[in-house]
Amino acid sequence: MPSRSSGARGGAVRPACPAPVLRGERGRCAAGVPRSSPPGREGALCSRRALRLRPAPGMHRAGGLWRRRRAGGGGAGPGPRPGDGAALGAGAGLGPGAEADPGLLRASSPEVGRRLRGLALVRGAFVSSGEAAELLRELEPVLGRRPYQFDHWDGAICGYRETERARWGGAGRAVLGRVAAAFPPGRPPLPLVHVLDLHPRGHVRPHVDSVKFCGCTIAGVSLLSPSVLRLVSCRAPGQWLELLLEPGSLYVLRGAARYDFTHEILRDEESFFGGRRVPRGRRLALICRNAPPDTTPDALGDSLAFIGGTAPPAAPQ
Ligand code: OGA
Ligand code: MN
Known about the structure:
ten-stranded antiparallel β-sheet; alpha+beta; binds N-oxalylglycine; 7 helices; 317 residues; disordered N terminus; two-stranded antiparallel ribbon
């Protein structure tokens, strides 16, 4: 099924990355994807998806289902349940000043850790077990109807099925309301949330989400299996950061972590967090993105100019 938000993987990459190309043509995308991308290799970015999945201009601007006041838990609809420790106030403190849970983050050097402080964030226990169970009950009937895609033309990802969702039950509304706190004022998440279901043998190859379809902030909630999210600098492949994504955790990528580093979800064989093995089972992610700064009919033109060698716009905050 067409999926708009997964188009965020397609299209543009930073010119500073190796082989700064717009992987725009289908054939090129299919042909250009290394089966296994070593750290630092930019993954495939297939804009076939991007073109197919391009968000309708203005759609996000309408505000859709997102109401920022919910970020503070004050919106309509069911909020955190009493006694729900994970839910209470968990959306607070997710801005650029926030600190990641130190035990869930490893950096190639203290300097890289400092550089990405507040820009690559991970929070354990963001989702309560009750919320997770309700989310799974809601999503399973939708996802279960689809086969997993292996060796699909989307070169950035292997062994997956996905959907998008704008309307959520109570748990989804509560969780996503808290996730919205990770987005800067005036740049809320898009109404459609990308739901990515990775097979135990599935993985996400290194890539940078398209600047045509995704703005300055990406926030993902992980369910079911733990996994490792690895970020590798586009300029200096020796510089990396790894986030341990426990079930129920939240990660946020913004600014340099979103634009200057590729991100990937490690396949089972490579799934280690330092010395610790992180066995990969089926993993479900709810991924929220905001719109690029200027989502107009000319957005594509802007992106091509960017690919031509200019630096991306500073992440609006
Ligand atoms: C993507 C992506 C990461 C995740 O779909 O673009 O990077 O958390 N997914 O599954
Ligand atoms: Mn991505």
